[in-house]
Amino acid sequence: MNKRFFIPLLIAAAAICAGLGEIKSILINRVDEGKKAVGIVVGTIDAKGRQVIGYGRLAADNPAQPDGGTLFEIGSITKVFTSLVLADMIERGEVKPDDPVAKYLPPSVTVPSRNGKQITLLDLSMQISGLPRMPNNFKPKDFANPYADYDPPKLYEFLSGYTLTRDIGEKYEYSNVGVGLLGHALSRKAGMSYEEMVRQRIWKPLGMNSTTVTLSAEQQKRMSTGHNALLRPVKNWDLDALAGAGAIRSTADDILKFLAANMELTDSPLKAAMRRMRTVHYDTGVPDLEIMMAWHVWHKYGTDIVWHNGGTAGFRTFAGFDPAKKTGVVVLCNTQLDCDDIGRHALESQWEVKRFPSAQ
Q1: Is 4 helix (H, G, I), strand (E, B) or coil?
Q2: Rg of the chain over CA atoms, in angstroms?
Q3: pLDDT per position as a tens digit, 32-65
Q4: What confidence score (pLDDT) does residue 20 get?
Q5: CA–CA separation, 269 vs 346, rounded Å?
Q6: Could you give the count of Cα atoms lying within 13 Å of 287 in the half-sphere of its Cβ?
Q7: In this predicted model, what pLDDT tens digit does every residue of 169-217 receive, in sequence order?
Q8: Of 15, 63, 70, 247, which alpha carbon lies 20 to 30 A from 281's?
Q9: pTM, entire model
Q10: Which CATH class is domain 3-79+195-347?
Q11: Which residues have CB under 8 Å from 306's CB, separation 6+?
Q12: Within 13 Å of residue 274, how many CA atoms lie on the same side as its CB?
């Protein structure tokens, strides 16, 4: 098992390792006993240091164990990066939160509006735009890689033909097409691809050198294989116009850097933008759950957990932190298996974590 430690005090190491002992038992249960996952990596961080524990395999046919440098599709955690770009642009005075998204699209595109109100950049970030979860013209050529051929012309076609069914800002509804649209509009404003925009504004300043959309030859060697619920390998997903909703691939080591910056355990030029993301709140309609700019927040057991998860055909992921205690966790699984409970339990022990019976 590969472990990465940065523990300045022995007494702190003992406390954190006890937590990792429980996490390891959970991973053993999911991989070996329950046979529900192929490989999982969990990283934890607080003011005393950071650690990563990996268990299982890079692929069903590859016995190498995943670690902090292994790449995973992080799915919808990408949405947090998209909204951070928005917050950074707002801080720099490049855009305004109440700018209509139509301002950053070609004049030929008609963005749906309702009762005199237009969809703004902040509406998209807060998931209150009134747009549906998925566009109604989403018809993949390859269902194993469904987003690959959804290009800007298809996005524009959807927008120009869609009629909102309720007022903008009336209700929270999680929308992949909404945040994908936000990422596309911001990249047009930046004058570069979504990937290059996020690299320049977030990954480089934070030293997230393994985080990417397009894999280099070296990164391909570190990329974990995704698996479905039957533990069979599946294709990676590639996103075009909706890249801002879920295109990023990253590692536990890099996500821990991102969490450290959000908790201000490390300083960064994105501090003001990260703070801005947490200043706005909207009720989701789910008890104890609000949304900020992309981040969701659970208010439960006397603890606030700021988080987002992600899922693609072969991966499930979770990243979150407790801003009061300054503790964070990332969970990356190369199997279509919900792992949110591991992350929540690591941050607040009263959150129940699932145990699977031994498979026969």
Answers
A1: strand
A2: 20
A3: 999 999 999 999 999 999 999 999 999 999 999 9
A4: 79
A5: 28
A6: 2
A7: 999 999 999 999 999 999 999 999 999 999 999 999 999 999 999 999 9
A8: 247
A9: 0.94
A10: alpha beta
A11: 262, 278, 292, 295, 296, 297, 320, 321, 322, 323
A12: 19
